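[Automated response] Your request has been received and processed.

Submitted sequence:
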Amino acid sequence: MCNGQVSTEVEFDVDGVRLSGALTDPVGPLPAVVFVHGSGSGRFSPRNRMVAELLQDVGLGTLLFDLLAPQEEGDRRLVFDIPLLSCRLLEVTAKLRERTSSIAYFGASTGAAAALHAAAERGNDICAIVSRGGRPDLTGSRLSMVQAPTLLLVGSLDTEVIELNRQAAKLLECDHELEIVPGATHLFSEPGTLDVVAERAREWFVAHASGS
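Generated structure:
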């Protein structure tokens, strides 16, 4: 692990279930980035792990964990229950603050909606948010309450989600950018596109680190 960082397995007792994750502490004043995945993904997702490793290269901390317990993942109602996922994310964030005060969110698909929903909670001081192929529209009216600088990354071939992100961006009153990644579909599985996501996310988190 770069920068002397070591990844450790952690467990969170949240909402009556036990959630597992892998935590790498940040270096210095840099934030710990909490990965909030969407449907069909998880903490073992190769995409999430690749992005996490590139964030760790510059000293950013990462927490890859599952918002749903294994026995819940097959329930589609829970996968799209943004308030429930947001509530669990808030509890995990509070527990993470016992280790580090600076926290950021990296959300994908429906996970991006949960990240924005949680960031809008009063008193939840998040330093930055990055959404990859996210559904910020599912955050609803709480979008206008988000204060953390937010970067929305969408693939140029993901046309429906581009429009949903454009509509959501109009509701954001915080510092925000919408960036279209050329040649990418919803999962950013095309060669080089996920590298672009990781690079832009890394730049965004470092630029908006607390105290920078």
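Summary generated for your ticket: Residues 88 and 188 are 27 Å apart (CA to CA). The helical segments are 46-56, 76-79, 82-96, 110-119, 159-169, 193-207.
If you did not submit this request, please reply to this message.
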